[in-house]
Amino acid sequence: MDFRLSDDHTMIADAAARLADDKLRPLAETLDEGGGRAELLENLNLLAQNGFMGLNIRGEYGGTEAGTVGFALAVNALARACASTAVTVSVSNMVAEVIQAVGSPDHRATYLPRLCDGTYPAGAFCLTETGAGSDPAGMRMAARMDGNEWVLNGSKLYITSAEYAGLFVVWAVTDPDAGKGRGISCFLVEADTPGIVIGKAERKMGQTGSATNEVHFQDCRIPASAVVGEVHDGFRIAVSELAGGRIGIGALALGIGQAAMQAARDYMLEREQFGRKLADMQGLQWMLADRETDLEAARLLVLQAAWLKDKGQPFSRAASMAKLFASEAAQRATYTALQIHGGAGYVKDYPLERYARDARITTIYEGTSEIQRLIIARETLKAVA
Ligand SMILES: Cc1cc2nc3c(=O)[nH]c(=O)nc-3n(C[C@H](O)[C@H](O)[C@H](O)COP(=O)(O)OP(=O)(O)OC[C@H]3O[C@@H](n4cnc5c(N)ncnc54)[C@H](O)[C@@H]3O)c2cc1C
What we know:
This protein is of the alpha+beta class. The chain is 54% helix and 16% strand. Flavin-adenine dinucleotide binds next to strand 1, strand 3 and helix 11.
């Protein structure tokens, strides 16, 4: 077994880290305070020009072919500088992967180059509704055929990047009489389609630089060809694509935790109390050791899940474990790092309080920790049976 990254993977991680340091980190605080939208869009374009918007997409569509390991490493490096930008990149890559995995040749040829080259600043993944979060099969949004068009009616909630996405992957009920989760289809909707209304922007605890909105579909007409995969088979697509997305969120959470602990390490080496460095105090050393062990375990889980996906092996259990562990490790790491900074951790002159707020959502979106445990238990019991 060889735990070293390949040269290609190292190159991707280094390139992402350089871009993150040069462009993302200097903007992170401004984004956190609610400004910098134009600069965020410039950065998204730069990320696209550098191949970060189609990391696991084939070269013929403008993708980077970096695989899932490359995707995870890139999102991780970006998140160490700016979680708001990293989540936009992670979700947009997930949208591209849906199209590559189950889109028609026309969908791939039309939309993948636009997502990869930055023509679309981002893609949006529209699954959640007011009454359907952890249980998306309970969705109400409807799509009915009228002539040769689908007509979408309903609302989605908490949609990442809705304000600047060029393309929406949208799930809607196409057969209300089918059993739960059976009569749902998946559609591609271009942002300028009449009938899409971007609703309320959520005011959030963290990751405030990324847009999160309600999206309303009001008699929104799209061609029959906008269905992705088979009609009524959309729920299966959502479930399987979310598993890949969880690797991205695990990598992102890990990045925030790593940034926080790196700051804590630096602070311990510099700050003195009682006539000695914080680094010389065993109580703090143990806190550091526990969190570093956590983050290393999270890193290995994320990379293992990514590797399994790249090898075409079942990876849903591993992806849930990676997302669960990395997101919870990120809570521990950001709070420990904040504590190690004392009062400096709590004030906005340092990024520690932002890291703690940015990490918080990672145990919630793309499936809460409770839902990850449910998946892990189900898969484990299935394996035993
Ligand atoms: C900032 C942000 C960005 C988001 N981005 C997107 C996006 O781009 N696209 C999208 O479609 N969605 C998005 N979401 C939605 C997100 O995925 C959901 O919020 C999440 O899945 C939880 O759903 P919910 O909020 O309805 O909580 P609920 O499902 O109502 O859950 C409430 C609580 O009950 C627990 N719970 C629920 N069911 C069970 C169970 N069976 N067993 C044990 N516990 C359970 C949950 O874990 C949670 O603690 C985003 C959310 C936020 C806040």
